[in-house]
Design goal:
164 residues, mainly alpha, 9 helices
Length: 164
């Protein structure tokens, strides 16, 4: 990523943190006119569009990134999350699983899949996937993220059951 695009990416992230997504969108679109092949910046645009509830535009942006590079994990996660929130669960699950078949170290994507499975009350499956990730990738601290998420969810459920 060019130095200027990196600065724009960071500025857009800061604007989003301040809930100034419209300004961030304009900034990113202006930079993409200069640097149209920047997939990281294009993915950021998709994230901003999703935050602005422009779901069709966000989906198109994420899919454009994935056409150019099917292994771009941030776009996979953005699209998966968007589809999940749009109740297109089967499609979101397919996006995650297809990516993970060819990118088994996609720890962020696995965490997204585990979240989706949890929302569908498929906790045992989510736990098994998360455990397998840790067993297969013990050398990466990121491999533990999905398992940490699943265990936190289970802990919350146990505490809730205790007080009900």
């Amino acid at each position: 990523m060019s130095h200027e695009s990196e600065k724009v990416f960071q500025k857009a992230s800061d604007l989003c943190n301040d809930e100034r997504e419209l300004e961030a969108e304009v900034l990113v679109m202006e930079q993409l006119a200069i640097d149209p092949d920047n997939l990281k910046l294009m993915t950021k645009l998709g994230e901003i569009q999703a935050r602005l509830c422009n779901d069709h535009e966000a989906e198109a942006t994420f899919r454009t990134v994935l056409i150019r590079n099917p292994s771009f994990e941030d776009a996979v996660c953005g699209l998966g999350s968007l589809l999940d929130q749009s109740l297109r669960i089967e499609e979101a699950e397919e996006i995650y699983r297809t990516f993970l078949q060819s990118n088994p170290t996609g720890h962020h994507a696995l965490e997204g899949l585990c979240r989706l499975l949890h929302s569908e009350d498929r906790i045992d499956e989510s736990l098994e996937l998360a455990r397998n990730q840790v067993e297969n990738h013990t050398d990466s601290h990121n491999a533990y993220k999905a398992l940490i998420y699943v265990l936190h969810v289970l802990e919350d459920q146990l505490e809730s059951d205790l007080y009900d």
